[in-house]
Specification:
- The protein is an alpha+beta fold.
- It has two domains: 70 residues, no CATH class; 200 residues, Fumarylacetoacetase-like, C-terminal domain (Fumarylacetoacetate hydrolase, domain 2, Alpha-Beta Complex), CATH 3.90.850.
- The protein contains six helices and 18 strands.
- Strands 5, 6, 7, 9, 10, 11, 15 and 16 form an eight-stranded mixed sheet that branches. Strands 1, 2, 3, 4 and 12 form a five-stranded antiparallel sheet that branches. A five-stranded mixed sheet has the order 8-18-17-13-14, with no helix packed on it.
């Protein structure tokens, strides 16, 4: 199953992605009387019921025609967003760093960074060198505490595409500035599709690409991560309880410097492309 969040008539709602177009969840039997945003569906355990409906072929709602909707972030208020730095050895080399061998370089960021497909990435006045990084992200579907790597997929609702931005000049001044360099508004693009694990034949074979202005600038496969997505779920569940809707962005094959007028993309085979235009913050703007 592939889920997306669409915006129409000023409202954001979850829809099942089909070849005919997105089918709003609220139009399906048993889903019209509750919240239809994806975070609420995950948090209330209605996700499993929706997946069962889909697996039984009982999704018979009307698809929204192209041009009648826009994509939005999958949701806007996750409890936690974990980022993983330097998870591909080659990317660590870009930053003249050594990739961690025993534990991931994890960091957290606020949900105010979230934007969706097509939204503008705003380059802040405080930074003269911002980079964009295409990444594969894991979305937690069930409460997870001290889970094993083998069991981790059972706690995952799905995977999605992410663009992760970094004010690299701020980070280079001092590694302790990592949180600030990652936390500017618009620095985390999220969507457009959540793809359930059963739709993916081999997660480790997925190719993740960072794309700038239509050109693939960096690419690598998940199998070349130091820490696999399932290992990361297990590791972080031993740090803190993971909750439905929590996000773990698993690291990038490489970053690209972005400037006013650019278009950054994350491409992962089997996923809808995530694309965002880039603008420079107007001087004096909030």
């Amino acid at each position: 199953m592939k889920l997306t969040t669409i915006k129409r008539d000023g409202r954001e709602e979850t829809a099942i992605a089909t070849p005919q177009g997105p089918v709003p969840v609220g139009e399906l039997d048993g889903f019209g009387d509750g919240a239809t945003d994806l975070f609420s569906i995950l948090e209330s355990e209605r996700f499993s019921r929706l997946k069962g409906l889909y697996d039984r072929g009982e999704v018979d709602g009307q698809a929204v025609p192209e041009g009648r909707f826009e994509y939005a972030p999958l949701y806007r208020r996750p409890r936690k967003i974990w980022g993983i730095g330097l998870n591909y050895v080659e990317h660590a080399g870009d930053l003249s760093e050594t990739a961690p061998a025993d534990e991931p370089a994890s960091f957290m960021r606020p949900d105010t960074t979230i934007i969706g497909p097509g939204d503008e990435v705003v380059l802040p006045e405080q930074s003269d060198r911002v980079t964009a990084e295409g990444e594969l992200a894991v979305v937690i579907g069930h409460e997870a505490k001290d889970v094993s790597e083998d069991d981790a997929p059972l706690f995952v609702a799905g995977l999605t595409t992410v663009l992760d931005m970094t004010a690299e000049d701020i980070l280079r001044r001092n590694p302790r500035y990592l949180t600030r360099s990652k936390s500017f508004d618009t620095f985390f693009s999220f969507g457009p599709e959540l793809v359930t694990p059963d739709e993916i034949q081999d997660v480790e074979a997925l190719k993740v690409s960072t794309v700038l202005n239509g050109e693939v600038r960096r690419a690598n496969t998940v199998s070349n991560m130091t820490f696999s997505p399932w290992w990361l779920v297990s590791f972080h569940s031993r740090v803190m309880t993971l909750l439905p809707g929590d996000v773990i962005s698993t690291g990038t094959p490489g970053a690209v410097v972005i400037r006013d007028g650019d278009v950054a993309e994350c491409r992962i085979m089997g996923f809808e492309t995530l694309s965002n235009p880039v603008v420079r913050q107007r001087r004096g703007a909030a």
